[in-house]
Structure formats: C-alpha cells, structure tokens
Design a protein that fits this description.
With 71 residues, the chain is mainly alpha-helical. Helix 1 packs antiparallel against helix 2 (38-64). It has helices spanning 5-31, 38-64, and strands spanning 2-3, 69-70. The chain starts with a strand and ends with a strand. It has a two-stranded antiparallel sheet with strand order 1-2. It has one domain (2-70). The protein contains 2 helices and 2 strands.
Length: 71
C-alpha cells in the first residue's frame, strides 16, 4: 500500500487529535481528581498507544518530505 501525501497528512492530523483528546481527558481527570471508569481509562490508554506510533510515522515521513512511502 502506498501512502500518498494526502493520506499521510490525514494520518498525522487524526493521530494528533486522538493523542490530544486522550491526554486532555486523562490529565484533566487526574488534575481535578475525577474517577473515570476502568473501561474508559483502558480505552483511552489503548487509543493513545495506537495513535502515538502512527503520529511518529507520519511526522517522520512529513519531515523527510517523501510524497510516497512503501509500507
């Protein structure tokens, strides 16, 4: 599968948004001493674990400037 520049940009934006939302929710809950359900905490943690490597992949390819990358 080839990653076009548009797909890479979309991956970058979505993974950044997922990481940001998960960080805000988990950090805000810890800051304001709000108890989140175990399922929600695990879901956000797993979403963050998936989004961070995707973000790094997209960011490195964006910095490298390649329009098409073989996966």
């Amino acid at each position: 599968m080839k990653m076009t520049k548009q797909n890479l940009e979309t991956l970058f934006k979505v993974s950044l948004a997922v990481t940001g939302v998960a960080t805000l929710v988990l950090g805000g809950a810890a800051l304001f001493d709000i108890d989140l359900s175990d399922g929600l905490r695990r879901f956000l943690g797993i979403a963050d674990l998936v989004a961070v490597p995707a973000f790094v992949y997209a960011a490195l390819n964006k910095i490298k400037g390649t329009a098409q990358v073989e996966a």
